[in-house]
Amino acid sequence: MSDIHAHPALAHHFDSLEEQKEAATLGMWVFLVTEVLFFGGIFATYAIYRSWYPEAFAAASHELDVTLGTINTAVLITSSLTMALAVHAAQLGRRTKVMVFLVLTMALGGVFLGIKGVEYYHKFTEHLIPGPGFQFEKEHLRHAQIFFSLYFMMTGLHALHMIIGFGIMLVMLWWAWRGTITKEYYSPIEISGLYWHFVDIVWIFLFPLLYLIGRHAH
Amino acid sequence: MTTALVPARHYLNDGYGIKSWLLTRDHKRIALLYLAGVTFFFFIGGAFAVLIRLELATPVGDLVSDETYNKLFTMHGVMMVFFFLIPAIPSVLGNFLVPIMIGAKDLAFPKLNLASWYIYMLGAAFTTYAIVTGGLDTGWTFYTPFSTVASTSAVIPAALGIFITGFSSILTGLNFIVTIHRMRAPGMTWFRLPLFIWSHYATSLIMVLGTPVLAITILLVAAERVFHFGFFDPAVGGDPVLFQHLFWFYSHPAVYIMILPAMGVISELIAAFCRKPVYGYPFVAFASLAIAVLGFLVWAHHMFVAGISVYAAMIFSILSFLVAIPSAVKVFNWTATMYKGSVSWQTPMLYAIGFIGLFTIGGLTGLFLAAVGLDIHVTDTYFIVAHFHYIMVGGTIMAYLGGLHYWWPKISGRLYNEWLAKVSALVIFVGFNLTFFPQFILGYLGMPRRYHAYPPEFQVLNVLSSAGASILGVGYLLPMMYLTWSLRYGRLASANPWGAVGLEWNTTSPPPTANFAEPPEVTWEAYDYGSPAVVEHV
Amino acid sequence: MAEHIVPTRVYYTIFAILMLCTYLTVRIAFFDLGPLNVVAALTIAVLKATLVVLFFMHVKYSTKLTWAVVLGSVFWLGILLALTMSDYLTRAWRTYG
Fold first, then answer.
1. A208: closest CA among A43, A34, A53, A33?
2. Which among C5, C20, C26 is the top mutation candidate for probing chain A, defined by the most A β-carbons within 10 Å of its own β-carbon?
3. CB of C1 within 8 Å of any CB in chain B?
4. How many beta-carbon pairs below 8 A join chains A and B?
5. For residue range A172-200, what is the model confidence (pLDDT) as tens digits?
6. CATH code where residue B452 lies
7. Is residue B429 part of a domain?
């Protein structure tokens, strides 16, 4: 038992902030394991149907906008950089810098979601939403629906994670602003960063798997 | 043995009123919240079972319509599996004991722990809503394409309820993993941990690794139903069997979420009532991890007739046989522990003995099902029903009740009526076997599951089964009554009424909110019965 | 606290590599490499993900336990994919047309 004057952020059942931080970090990593398996289920679904219907997947993939996809990839990677820099600033106890980098991260996340929204809108006007109203070249009419079902499910779940991440960053911004986050106690920002980077990694896989199938054919 | 019987201040009287319970972060109080929850849903699920057995008392479908019958067995399965069996031991006994057994003040994330209970209740509320607004008729397995395009019952709210409850399972598992890694008391090395902790660690791994796959699978079904997405729909080229792959990736390991904590309980009981360390401790510990890992490699043995490839069936068949090895290691080691032990036949030990017998029958009939040829003969018959009830009811519930009796004095600070408890243990054992053993024969003779009518030649065995079910029902009501009664009228329990070793017996009954008067330091090995240092400690 | 603070130079370098990889993966997709297209795309994606995990997520500087958790998640993802595929790649009948 440490009898040090307890840090305000130290919970009663931990002996030290160090111990508390290690527990929080491990907890976040274990949570990310569940996320890997969560997305794993849909990646498995993708793998099976792509191996079954390669031509339909290539044809359907051509309906996606590579330029917008590439821009979004760059945007998300940049947001991962600013997130890493926010954690770095927090480690050094630089409050203003933390806030600047958090705002940048959120702004980039917002750009990503905006572009995603534009893409969704296009798909909607082009009748590429699976279901009775789906329109596609006759040859791939059925199987292309599987591709677009996967597309909306995968990118939709990814976007949902982005929105949750956005909310987490808002809380972090508030905590940084009111001084909860300090050089001694920056683990909330660090584990939020882990989550943000994970969401980035999901996109790193989604991008080539959805946007870049058989691009050489056109 | 002890001095002051009841401490002046303990977790039960540390704050009164509904708020002190509903907003508590004390793992012990949260365990009791869970106890209330799982008990409630156990009896709801039990009520459906009563109706099922009533219907099957006669060969003709006279009590309920075929559609109602479909809903009865579905809701019995959903309630029992997701809202009783999966949370029962980890969330009640595990929640109460994991921190105490490793000498910690609480779980690593107390707020998440409380949140997990609310999430569980919210999920249960959704599923209950599904039940009262028309029910669910897909079977607890939600097989596509029936669940996605054909069923007109309340699939979405029920599935959503299970999806939500999954998060409570994940949070419990996450909390246990971090707690066991990070919060062990000084001197509590991995190989001094009680086997209860090892088995809960293995269980938590499955919760964390398996549950998310069920979550995404349910979402895919929901998206298919709501948005007409085509994941499992042959009309657009989808494969309904893929649903079964994803579903069983979780739901087979989920059986080990039910049985592994039960095995942990049995290890504690056997050691305590034989006054011996568990024979081959490291083997029993690693067998838990082996079951957790192997459990993920066998799921398609549920799908031998579903149209999977012959090669895949062979692979999954062989892998399924492997699970028998760690399971047998445990059974043999428990038996070896009893050998030349000074066995005392108190209530928890009766349950433990019952568990070993019934689990062995359940496990061995599982090997029948791992063998492709035999499995095809008995698939979707009462043989399967009997097999998994031997594991889930004969195994998990026996261990749960045994554990509840063993730790009841610690939890409540009171002793129950030993004579009544022994009688109920016996009633449950007899009722259980009478209910489910005839079902092995019925299934082998070819009676299919999930039908509300059957040929008259099966009636004798079905009547036996229904009669057994009523005995079993009485057996389950008894503990609820005398345990509740003991809360007020039971004799006060000492800190260590069984004379057992383990950190939970080194603190008062009931324990203080911080679990120990002062943080413990462990200097002895697990189950160190007979060592002078420990005996003195007791 | 014995906390490893990564110099920002490392972050910028990793960022540059990630951007370069993104450019490469898009370019490669427009060449016909047959079945190698998907191999290239996934190899680059795995490389990018590894860099993010090691540097942005600090796993390179973390405990063995963190490594175990990361590798464990990849291993279980592998079980899910491999054993599911063991059925799909060996079925005598194939698709729903």
1. A43
2. C26
3. no
4. 113
5. 999 999 999 999 999 999 999 999 999 99
6. 1.20.210.10
7. yes
